[in-house]
Amino acid sequence: xxxxxxxxxxxxxxxxxxxxxxxxxxxxxxxxxxxxxxxxxxxxxxxxxxxxxxxxxxxxxxxxxxxxxxxxxxxxxxxxxxxxxxxxxxxxxxxxxxxxxxxxxxxxxxxxxxxxxxxxxxxxxxxxxxxxxxxxxxxxxxxxxxxxxxxxxxxxxxxxxxxxxxxxxxxxxxxxxxxxxxxxxxxxxxxxxxxxxxxxxxxxxxxxxxxxxxxxxxxxxxxxxxxxxxxxxxxxxxxxxxxxxxxxxxxxxxxxxxxxxxxxxxxxxxxxxxxxxxxxxxxxxxxxxxxxxxxxxxxxxxxxxxxxxxxxxxxxxxxxxxxxxxxxxxxxxxxxxxxxxxxxxxxxxxxxxxxxxxxxxxxxxxxxxxxxxxxxxxxxxxxxxxxxxxxxxxxxxxxxxxxxxxxxxxxxxxxxxxxxxxxxxxxxxxxxxxxxxxxxxxxxxxxxxxxxxxxxxxxxxxxxxxxxxxxxxxxxxxxxxxxxxxxxxxxxxxxxxxxxxxxxxxxxxxxxxxxxxxxxxxxxxxxxxxxxxxxxxxxxxxxxxxxxxxxxxxxxxxxxxxxxxxxxxxxxxxxxxxxxxxxxxxxxxxxxxxxxxxxxxxxxxxxxxxxxxxxxxxxxxxxxxxxxxxxxxxxxxxxxxxxxxxxxxxxxxxxxxxxxxxxxxxxxxxxxxxxxxxxxxxxxxxxxxxxxxxxxxxxxxxxxxxxxxxxxxxxxxxxxxxxxxxxxxxxxxxxxxxxxxxxxxxxxxxxxxxxxxxxxxxxxxxxxxxxxxxxxxxxxxxxxxxxxx
Length: 789
Ligand SMILES: [Zn+2]
Ligand SMILES: [Zn+2]
Known about the structure:
The two termini are 55 Å apart. The radius of gyration is 28 Å and the shape is globular. Strands 6-13-7-8-12-9-11-10-14-15 form a ten-stranded mixed β-sheet, with helices on both faces. A six-stranded mixed β-sheet has the order 16-19-18-17-20-21, sandwiched between helices. The chain is an alpha/beta fold. Helix content is 34%, strand content 19%. It binds zinc ion (2 copies).
């Protein structure tokens, strides 16, 4: 009988892959064995029907498994008896670490079935679902190295764990009410709670009851705590905002099922698929007007909804036909709490009760945030459910070089490269915060251990003051440090996740972003770059305008408006023509002399081509966000949310007139908003609705970006355009630009797997650094070969 060896790579370890193979082989009467290897799974098969086996394997893959490559080769060994699962030999297994996954339908069924062993058990999970990354403390991924080690399995669980035919074969966190973790409700700030007092089933159910009764409850989830309250009660939501000291920024919501979500928001088929996927992210959905208190997402038209992703959440929300606020359990600015004692210490003034449990959270991981734009899933925050799943790098990046890229200052992530794969950390937040640093340290140590990673080089942003850059130099020792320009990294990240090979010809990269340090000492953020992984050339930009006050201008939108208006017309003309507008006394009250001095002497007022700051100025002019942004991007988000969709159908010439002149001296074309401010002020005089003005601004800017791109692409003979940078999370701007470019016959690539914002930056840094090193290596080799001759 002939034999065959199948070598499979992908997400195939720790996801129930071997039991599936075992079951198929049993059903088909095949002999052989299956084992985990260093980077995948190896199957040996004897018997007929090899093709049928492969087809069935692909068709019946477990929920979390993914095959990237499958190779087949004949073998001449004699056939064994039957089919076995072989323990890996020699050294330790490098079992891939998979992301946490939402409760699967089988487990949910069991939790709801009064006859089942795990009826009503809040920590039910199996091979296809449950915690993984959030409980892991070291490699290999084995119960003894997770926070489940405190819970010895009972006989029932141990039998299931050891049976290849069982759904829970080698599911490390398997547990039941007899042997596993337990949840309990505690009154914060002293006092006992008795579930009986609520006359409910148990403490989890009682937590749901407390929420329905208008209480704020801290809930221990998979990767951290949430603060939960009834989203329909305006005064409770306002109380939560007050106590948590969180202004403006939207609260995420959780609802029992899709039907509840549909009552409050529009859900299309793509969005439903995303909500119910094993990653179960927060999905941004178009809100139905007037259904929830404005305090949930002040000024915004979209709501962030997720579905329950643990049995505990399902049980807690079981009786609730309305959505619940589920915002991260922290005081504004701090990372999410992960331990019961942190909550007792820091949140007892915020929450009335806490739903605790006794399974420790080993690794903090926030909820992921995603949306569906132009038919594609776009991650805005990549964390629970996605990290640390590797992203395979495109062709040419398959060297065995190990490298570490340290990301940006804001929305920090880091990226490990190993065996041609990019392992991107979860979103950790802004490095301005000291506690976030501790999180980065923890995660760097963890990832390096889990993935046995020893970087040969380190990639950082070119900005010397970024804490991530400083960390890179501190860690480097003898290793080379490669500095990567911020927007080059944005575009490279987009190229890499779109599969462009290492030696791909240039793309036209359009980076519409906040701020990043440029080559010329100014601050970039609205760039048109001819990009390969190896390098870039700046071909065009948004007009550079002063940032009066530097960092203060990032927080305070009116400063950008002042700089733009003074660049356009100066104070005397502005005062003469627009004295009657609301904006006049507001700017008149500003310390104009100081600002003018800063701008003229260019002290503490660096020039910036940032698209984000242009949006800030526009939002300030319409009065939507003037004094201070409560969170990064607030002004731009409010300005987009105010947009009246009907106004997008106005005649084309009403779009605001951005021009594209050439910059003096250097001859670079730039997008010039001078005439836009005059048009907007004119619209204010005419009392044009803000929604119309927002539409005209978005259309005008998109038209200018498209016109610039067409001209540059044609001059440089480039046919592919890459869209990246935080401003492209503005769905309106993105869609207008993408449509325009496609209409012009250009190929457009954009983000899906990593965020367009700084959260995706470490991936781009990694690929640029690898390209730089590969070129150096080649140069080295060719030099050597010359010497040989
Ligand atoms: Zn399950
Ligand atoms: Zn058990």
